[in-house]
Amino acid sequence: MRYTSPEMAGRVAGTVALGIVCLFGFALAGLLFLYAVYPWIDRKVHPVSGSRWLDTVVFGVIGLICAYVTTRLFQGRRWAWWTAFAASVLILASGTVLLYSSLHPKNDFEASESGFGIGISIILMTPSFASSVLLIVPCVRRRFAPS
Q: Against a cut of 0.85, is the pTM above it?
């Protein structure tokens, strides 16, 4: 016979929620690594900073930091929880600003690119909203509470 207490169910739910947040974190790290190497794969792409080397270094370092924080988050470090929560709230805020500016264009160029802006804002806001909500769920917060 199997015995499941509410405490054990909360622990499992917290681990699953944290696993989903870590999945988003590793997906973001993978995307940043892709941005780091893409100027070398396709020569026709214009680097964000104007230099292939600088793009590789900047996006590579940010990707490493993202992967490191995500790993430490799954290991239960409190500073990683705060870092992940702050990053998800900042990404959510930038997605909201992008959505607002896409819905209220000020010139013809912004009006022509509003569909792209709306799509990018939804892509930014969906995982960041899910991560923010999952990180403040009580069963996840308990994992990072001081002893």
A: no
